Amino acid sequence: MSRKTTDNAKALAIVGTLGAIGLKAIEYQSAVEAKKKAAVEFGKACAKWKREHNLEFITKNSTDWQWMMHNIPAEVWALMSAAKRNERNARERLFRACKKAAHL
Prior knowledge:
The protein is mainly alpha-helical. The chain is built from three helices and no strands.
């Protein structure tokens, strides 16, 4: 194999890897946005619970806090858990793509 062919192959590999990094970055940004939306929904559920129980402020880890966390709807917990998991996975995929690029 000639040097020019080797250089071309390496350049194509780099371009392909950079394209993969770009796609992973877009996926990560989408996951971050989804997590923000889930956090807003979680906040709304907490605010609704506080309103229903005539509370303005709840100290974290207090009895009221624990009761509120226990009574957040399962759908909201599922949304938040999935959003956190998806963000973490997207971040890890992005980091792996970057590590791969660093070794080219």
